[in-house]
Specification:
Layout (H helix, E strand, L loop, with lengths): L9 H13 L1 H9 L10 E6 L4 E6 L2 E2 L1 H13 L3 E6 L8 E4 H17 L7 E5 L4 H13 L2 E4 L6 H11 L3 E5 L2 E3 L2 E3 L1 H8 L8 E5 L13 E3 H12 E2 L2 E2 L6 E2 L3 E7 L7 E6 H15 L7 E4 L6 H13 L3 E5 L10 H9 L3 E4 L1 H8 L16 E5 L5 H11 L6 E4 L33 E4 L15 E7 L9 E2 L3 H9 L6 E9 L5 E6 L3 E4 L2 E4 H9 L4 E11 L3 E10 L7 H14 L8 E4 L13 H9 L15 H8 L3
Parallel strand pairs: 4-19, 6-7, 6-8, 7-16, 8-11, 11-12, 18-19, 18-20, 20-21, 21-22, 31-32
Antiparallel strand pairs: 1-2, 3-15, 4-5, 9-10, 13-14, 16-17, 17-25, 23-24, 24-26, 26-27, 28-29, 30-31
Helix pairs in contact: 1-2, 3-4, 3-10, 4-5, 4-8, 6-7, 9-10, 12-13
Bound molecules: 5'-O-[(S)-butoxy(hydroxy)phosphoryl]adenosine.
Family: Belongs to the ATP-dependent AMP-binding enzyme family.
GO molecular function, one term: ATP binding
EC number: 6.2.1.1
Length: 645
């Protein structure tokens, strides 16, 4: 496969960037010509950020699975699409060729049809990282069902909320999922999530761990039986295939829930045409993928990174994508390096938190591992500190692999700011330059563009984007007004990212982190309000306030200030009960690292919690708390300071 839109030099980048901004319709029309459309568009782009209304490739017809699978069959049918590495290294690897992927996706699409799933229906997928997860996702896409993948670390309550919000009638899950030394009982968690649920009609269960499961007659069915039946149904002359449903470019492809500054996660909606073009384009350009190379993105498909850079981006480019079931430290901290060695991985894409965690094990886990196949290293999910950047560059890349620091979000569909591997310069801990089509701008609190450099010659402000790129979210499921107020209402005619950034004189961007009440814990996005709501569910809790604090491995840790009803302050048990409550309500990933019991919270006279002060205390900066005179009870601050944990 060839990628005529692959940028090869810095000059070409500059030229492409300029063209993409001056004439976006021409630019993206040309890029989109390299994909397979049943019918081309009537108009490349129509938009306004007011409503917002964003339409790319309007009138075009396609099915993304024909781009990710069918069009590769003739020339690459026997090439590996997915190489699956099991949690347990002793277990057999599974190599899924493009033709095998086609067969399985068609079969599963037929399973969905057999069970009454129709175009536009929402299918919730709660599975471990097994190839069947890819078949489930792509099977939905093949018949136009909207998939909503939920990360395996979320609790029954979180799943229930998402099922309700998406009004989902179908679930695909596993009996259990292996992660390191543990097996997570996914089906049993689903059973809990379904207590009181009235919409879900069918639960399809794939067997992975042989964990005993309860199967409810009429509702719960086995993946294996369904697949066998579907196979016989669609087989003709030894070929297993079924036609893909024709989709409009702007039909929804999937929903993915993500946390914001308010209590309830939002269902970010991406559509078929623009998302396909954006993930394909950014994959080929940022990582400079060459045909035949092996790409290993270590993310979970429960997050956007897995959607875009394990599945859709690589597969539309006909790449080989490694899918890893386990965790970086099982059976030991050399696991990533074993995988790189075993499959001769060329591109490794991981998160700063993983790099920092592996750094802490020293050089031993690297001994005897051949990493010479590596050509490109990538990071994503949170700001990367210089120490981790250099460790990655030196010990993994041996100074021979460009490091791409890719900044983006669930809402952006794919990478927005990053260097292009070996093509545009890297700068440690800077995401550097915008992708073609992306027009960032830094603004102050009132939305005025920042033009005056600070004492270091840098511009500093809130990061916004001026115009749509093909992968931008279209709405938040079931609540378009929420999409508008969250992203398009802070500043007129701008998409607001929620991040702060710096810009240097060469036009490079450095993302400094969230400026809203969203935490980034080990690359996972968690809303402070969400954690507070969960803590407040505990019987003895009166009120709580949650802030982030710098954490060596996780990037940010969660610090909770909690007022309890009775005098349970000294009680370790009260802390553990709160942790258990949070794990139940959200999931283990949201458990606070520190809990401090307090008698009061610093509030203004109007009753607003002054988080700025709590953040400083949590960061250990107790000296310089700024103005506290507007507080209702300034004395409380000293008390909190003294009892800091
Ligand atoms: C938030 C989005 C992008 C997929 C994974 C996370 C932070 C992401 C970087 C980076 C600094 C980064 C931002 C962003 N972030 N990448 N390279 N440098 N910060 O997706 O869960 O939607 O989180 O992650 O704060 O807003 P997400």
């Amino acid at each position: 496969m060839e990628y005529p839109y692959q940028i090869k030099t810095f000059e070409e980048y500059q030229k492409n960037y300029k063209e993409s901004v001056e004439n976006p319709e021409k630019f993206w029309g040309d890029v989109a010509d390299n994909f397979f459309w049943r019918k081309k568009w009537d108009k490349v782009l129509e938009w306004n950020f007011k409503e917002p209304k964003i339409e790319w490739f309007k009138g075009a017809k396609l099915n993304i699975t024909e781009n990710c699978i069918d069009r590769h069959l003739e020339t690459m049918g026997e090439k590996p699409a997915i190489i699956w590495e099991p949690n347990n290294p002793e277990e057999r690897t599974r190599v899924v060729t493009y033709s095998r992927l086609h067969k399985r996706v068609c079969q599963f699409a037929q399973v969905l049809l057999n069970n009454g799933v129709k175009k536009g229906d929402r299918v919730c997928i709660y599975m471990g990282m097994v190839p069947e997860l890819a078949y489930a996702v792509l099977g939905c896409a093949r018949i136009g069902a909207i998939h909503s993948v939920i990360f395996g670390g979320f609790s029954a309550q979180s799943i229930a909320d998402r099922l309700y919000d998406a009004n989902a009638e179908f679930i695909v899950t596993c009996d259990g999922a292996y992660r390191g030394g543990k097996a997570i009982p996914l089906k049993s968690i689903i059973d809990d999530a379904l207590i009181g649920n009235r919409t879900v009609k069918k639960v399809i269960v794939y067997t992975r761990t042989r964990t005993p499961v309860s199967m409810l007659k009429g509702r719960d069915i086995w993946w294996e039986d369904e697949m066998e039946y579907a196979e016989a149904q669609i087989e003709k002359d030894n070929v297993i295939t079924m036609p893909a449903t024709e989709m409009d470019a702007e039909d929804p492809l999937f929903i993915l829930y993500t946390s914001g500054s308010t209590g309830k996660p939002k269902g970010v909606v991406h559509t078929c045409g623009g998302y396909m073009v954006w993930t394909g384009y950014t994959f080929v350009n940022v990582f400079q993928y060459k045909p035949g190379e092996v790409h290993f993105c270590t993310a979970d498909i429960g997050w956007i990174t897995g959607h875009s850079y394990i599945l859709y981006g690589p597969l539309s480019a006909g790449a080989t994508s490694v899918m890893f079931e386990g965790i970086p430290t099982y059976p030991d901290a050399g696991r990533f390096w074993d995988i790189v060695d075993k499959y001769k991985v060329n591109i490794l894409y991981t998160a700063p938190t993983a790099i920092r965690s592996l750094m802490s094990y020293g050089m031993d886990p690297l001994k005897g591992k051949d990493l010479s196949s590596l050509k490109v290293l990538g990071t994503v999910g949170e700001p990367i500190n210089e120490e981790a950047w250099h460790w990655y560059d030196e010990n993994i890349g041996k100074h021979n692999c460009p490091v791409v620091d890719t900044w983006w979000q669930t809402e952006t569909g794919g990478i927005l700011i990053s260097n292009l591997a070996g093509v545009t310069p890297s700068k440690p801990s800077w995401a550097t330059l915008p992708m073609p089509g992306v027009q960032p701008v830094l603004v102050d609190e009132r939305g005025k563009e920042i033009t005056e450099p600070d004492e270091h010659g840098l511009l500093k402000g809130n990061l916004c984007i001026k115009a749509p790129w093909p992968g931008i979210l279209r709405t938040t499921y079931g609540d378009h007004e929420r999409c508008r107020t969250n992203y398009f209402a802070s500043y007129e005619n701008l998409y607001f990212t929620g991040d702060g950034a710096l810009k240097d004189k060469d036009g490079n961007y450095r993302i400094t982190g969230r400026v809203d009440d969203v935490l980034n814990v080990s690359g996972h996005r968690i809303g402070t309000a969400e954690v507070e709501n969960a803590i407040n569910m505990h019987t003895n809790v009166v009120e709580s306030a949650v802030v982030g604090f710098p954490h060596n491995i996780k990037g940010q840790g969660i610090y909770a200030f909690v007022i309890t009803e009775k005098n349970t302050h000294e009680d370790e048990r009260a802390k553990n009960d709160i942790l258990e409550t949070v794990a139940r309500i959200i999931g283990p990933i949201a458990k606070p690292d520190k809990i401090q019991f307090v008698n009061g919270l610093p509030k203004t006279r109007s009753g607003k919690i002054m988080r700025r002060i709590l953040r400083k205390i949590a960061e250990g900066e107790t000296e310089n708390l700024g103005d506290t005179t507007t507080l209702l009870d300034p004395g409380i601050v000293d008390e909190i300071k003294q009892n800091k944990v």
